[in-house]
Amino acid sequence: MDNHTRLLALDWGTTSLRAWRLGDDGQQLESRDLPYGIMKLPANKGGRLAAFQEVFLAACGDWLQTTGCREVIACGMVGSAQGWKEAAYLPCPTGLTDLAKQLCSLEVSPAIRLSIIPGLAVNGDDPEVMRGEETQVFGILCSQSEDSGEMIIGMPGTHSKWALAQHNHVLGFRTFMTGELFDVLKNHSILGATMQPSPETDWQVFDDGVATAIRQKEAGLLSTLFSTRTKLLAGQISSQQQSDYLSGLVIGHELVGLRQTLLADEERRLNTPIVLTGNPTLCERYQRAFRQTIADRPIQFIAQATVAGLWQIALRARLIHGA
Q1: Cα(182)–Cα(194) distance, rounded to whole angstroms?
Q2: pTM attached to this predicted model
Q3: If we measure between CA atoms, which residue out of 272, 118, 227, 251 comes closest to residue 176?
Q4: DSSP assigned state of 26
């Protein structure tokens, strides 16, 4: 029997699943990736629920047998309406302790329980939701001192999330569909029809895209997107440079929008720490774009926050085995 494992944790998203076996203080002892997100489950004669159980056991069944752990925690789309069991959204502001008290419990077998972390919501005229990113946010917050003030946490991706947080609480957040829009425009629009792959990033052209977004902020994104094509026709950029220009353009507009929303207050814009987490290559683009949109601000980068968040939430929910 393995006496070192303290927690089994899952990040179960739309297209993939990642599992971790964690030791003392959340140390990663082992991890594995499976291509079975909630929308890519394998066929199972028993139906969708049986498919979820099949993937769950593929992810951590052997760990359950060898470690003695009977509690598993999960974040992500597994708790959505299309997931294994729905974990309701909690309204912001929400604290880490609030989240830990509202875990959605699923009895996988008489001896094994899966605890699913709820998502977060902003209610009102402009509602927002996040599911999975809240775990990253709390993973970052728990690495900060308890008396730290407000912080902006950015999670670039398909649907970029920007959270305003303070003292282990998420006060609110905004979503920008930048990644998905870029993919659609590149692969399913006239803008992408002339694009050619480039062996490396053209940072000057990327910067030009950001600069266009800032210069044309009043006109807006819809008015400037077509410049990806017209600059090619005018000979200002090549087909190999179009992708980086478009990337800078949409990221630039995202950061202009961030400045007009969560960073609209001048005091917050000038003094609130900004942290990025996620894919390092993508975050590098955001760090570079910030130099033009909010100059002279150090942007902290944290590569991995999900595991820390899963550990901290499980700790407060008293799920940690043997700790």
Answers
A1: 15
A2: 0.93
A3: 251
A4: G
- Name which of 180, 143, 131, 142 is nearest 158 in CA terms: 180
DSSP letter for each residue of 178-192: HHHHHHHHHHHSHHH
Distance from the Cα of residue 152 to its chain's centroid:
14
* Domains, the chain, ordered by start: 7-143+306-316 (3.30.420.300), 175-302 (3.30.420.310)
Does residue 93 have a cis bond before it (omega within 30 degrees)? yes
Surface-to-core class of residue 81, CB atoms within 10 Å of its CB (0-12 exposed, 13-18 middle, 19+ buried): exposed
Torsional sign, CA 286, 291, 292, 296: positive
Distance of alpha carbon 191 from its chain centroid, rounded?
27
DSSP secondary structure letters along 256-323 = HHHHHTTT-SHHHHHHS-EEEES-HHHHHHHHHHHHHHSTT--EEEES--HHHHHHHHHHHTT--TT-
- What pLDDT digit, counting tens, does each position of 1-48 carry? 567 899 999 999 999 999 999 999 999 999 999 999 999 999 998 999
